[in-house]
Design brief:
The protein is mainly β. It has 2 helices and 18 strands.
Length: 218
């Protein structure tokens, strides 16, 4: 159950995408719904949360939240691979989530013996292994590993056994980013202002969830 300071309240289910733009500031919570907590068998969750830096010119946009059900996401079939486009554009398809820079983000299920070449139009590309293993230039990568490809190199992934991977990439960042706790910015001064605003409770609350995490000491 996603809730945020915009008033959003949205359950996410397998295959769906919850897409939040933090912009100049948003507060949110992610909870296991109460009915699942109360179930005798308990509840478990398996997923990937991804942070994408905004270009400098859009770092202070208004915060936003979008929900995209699984049925609205483009599905792509390549030889031996079933792909779901989560965000951006790839292989002639475009996902509905609002993005601010050229990028692609795909969930891929590869059959054993298959291979896939990542979109060549993006200078930065990588593959993250969720289940199984993949090979890149005869080097093996297992669960939790992420080969990053050189800009001009062939970006080809081989699955000698069934595998689930994330394919991702896009345009290079327009300068370095700083991260401190949950704050990300190209400006250290902006992060200091955000820290002060959080400490003095100037961020908007989350309707329906009044728990608040204190600012860490470091």
């Amino acid at each position: 159950m996603h809730r945020d300071s915009l008033g959003s309240a949205q359950v996410i289910r397998p295959g769906d995408v919850n897409w939040m733009v933090a912009g100049r500031g948003i507060v949110h919570s992610e909870r296991t719904p109460p009915e699942q907590r109360a179930a005798p068998e308990g509840a478990s969750i398996h997923g990937i949360q991804t942070w994408i830096a905004l270009p400098r010119g859009h770092e202070e946009v208004a915060p936003a939240f979008e929900h995209h059900p699984a049925k609205t996401l483009p599905k792509i079939s390549l030889q031996g691979a079933q792909l779901c486009l989560i965000a951006g554009a790839a292989y002639g398809a475009r996902a509905p989530a609002s993005v601010y820079s050229p990028m692609f983000y795909l969930a891929a299920e590869l059959a054993g013996g298959s291979e896939i070449e990542l979109p060549a139009e993006y200078p930065e590309r990588a593959a993250y292994v969720v289940d199984g293993e993949i090979h890149v230039d005869d080097r093996r990568y297992g669960v939790g590993q992420m080969p990053v490809f050189e800009s001009a190199a062939d970006a080809r992934v081989v699955a000698r056994m069934p595998a689930r991977i994330m394919l991702l990439g896009g345009a290079p960042l327009d300068g370095p980013r700083h991260i401190w706790w949950n704050f990300v910015s190209s400006s250290l001064e902006r992060i200091e202002r955000a820290k002060l605003d959080w400490r003095e409770q100037r961020f908007a609350p989350v309707p329906g969830d009044d728990e608040r995490i204190p600012l860490p000491d470091r």
